[in-house]
Amino acid sequence: MSDSTKAEGRCGWCGTDPLYVAYHDTEWGVPEYDARALWEKLVLDGMQAGLAWITILRKREGIRDAFDNFDPDTVAAYTEADVERLLADARIIRSRAKIMAAISRARIWVQMRDEGEDFSAWLWSFVGGAPIQNRWANFRDAPTQTEESVAMAKALKKRGFNFCGPVIVYAFMQAVGMVNDHQTSCHRHGEVKKAE
């Protein structure tokens, strides 16, 4: 489907795959403030590195199940036996580096929480605590990284996160509604703006 048809008033990137359309229509760009949910999305975006997002969507329920429903305390306590279990699980992205990154991210999240730092407030501080409202006529007009995503990526790396370069971080920011990058002709642009 061409960009000009806008997939029934949607952003051109989501195409017609029912899973992608549902993700676009119900999740992508909706402001997320829950610290655990933000951590889960950051883990999933790290797992996406080098892959298409649809691959992660298709495996997401299996990944959630394999990672104990993304409970940070449980994942932070994973041992080498858990790593081996995960490497044998065909439902997930079986990359040792990405599995280890998820475990490391859980430990960082737990440490931040235990030290009284709110993960959500910290992440949202990079956009001033509220979504940036963009007005792109076409989804391709949106940047792949911004000053905010560069700053967030640097701060995440400083804390020990990996698989979080500025491009991955910008995709994360788009997905969790820190920026509204629905194209203006998309029915979700205005809906997401109201959800702010």
Give a verbal description of the structure.
With 196 residues, the protein is mainly α. It has helices at 6-9, 18-26, 35-48, 53-66, 72-76, 80-87, 96-114, 119-124, 147-159, 166-175, 187-195, and strands at 132-133, 179-180. A two-stranded parallel ribbon has the order 1-2. The longest helix is centred in the middle third of the chain and has 19 residues, at 96-114. It is globular and about 50 Å long. It starts with 5 loop residues before the first helix and ends with a helix. 32% of the residues are buried.
Q: Provide the low-confidence segments as ranges.
A: 1-7
Order of helices and strands: HHHHHHHHEHHEH
On the 0 to 100 scale, the average pLDDT is 93
Number of helices: 11
Question: Cα-atom Rg, whole angstroms?
Answer: 17 Å
Helix content: 55-70%
First CA to last CA: what distance?
A: 30 Å
Q: Strand-residue fraction?
A: under 5%
**Using DSSP, what is the number of strands?**
2
Structural class: mainly alpha
Q: What's the arrangement of strands in the largest beta sheet?
A: 1-2
Largest sheet: 2 strands, parallel
Q: Label the overall shape.
A: globular
